[in-house]
Amino acid sequence: MPAKKEKKVSLNFTMQHQLGHAMCWAAVGTSCALFYDPDSKWTQCKLASQSIGPNTGDCCTNPEDSPCDIVWYLQNDENIGSFVTAGIARGYEKGFIPYKKLVGELDAGRIIAFLLRMDIDGTINNRNEFSHFVAIAGYEWTDSEENVTIYDSFFGKSEMPYKEFVTNYKCHGGTVLGHAVKDSLVEYTFFSTPTSTP
User: Fold this and answer.
1) Measured between alpha carbons, how far is 122 from 107 in angstroms, rounded to an integer?
2) Based on the structure, what is the number of domains in the chain?
3) Domain span at residue 49?
4) Contact (CB, 8 A) for 67 and 48
5) Is 106 part of any domain?
6) End-to-end CA distance of the chain
7) How far is the C-alpha of 177 from the C-alpha of 170, rounded, in Å?
8) Domain with 136 in it: what CATH number?
């Protein structure tokens, strides 16, 4: 009887809790930058200020009530966002990538980030959906399972099948400002790479 195949990787990654309601992009960017270079001195408010613009204002004194607590990017078509500012951007793709490609990135020691569109059971700011960035920094691959470890700056760390993550990441019953997440879908995949200290 053939031996059971099993492969597991868990990168030494820590996701910071996002400082403001909309600052998941800053938390993911900062956490990934510090993973590659712990001496880079990036903080969420510093990275946010430099990502949005040179005249953003003070984003560190009161982050939840600052000009930086807005929807922003890791990387976009204009090549702006927290990954770009931190010097770790390596491009992005629409939708999600195959599991084997994800495994290859993590085997090479590179964090993968995703933009999810999430539907909620009500409205927040006259909308019934929102976007949210998360990162994946680990996996467990067996003959019958293709699991990933998700690092979420709002909901925390969790593990689940990759197939479930890309089509129905409910944050294990998580709520956003009192509204439950009904379902979600990966909209974009973002690639990162090590860089030198800025």
Assistant:
1) 40
2) 1
3) 18-192
4) no
5) yes
6) 53
7) 15
8) 3.90.70.10
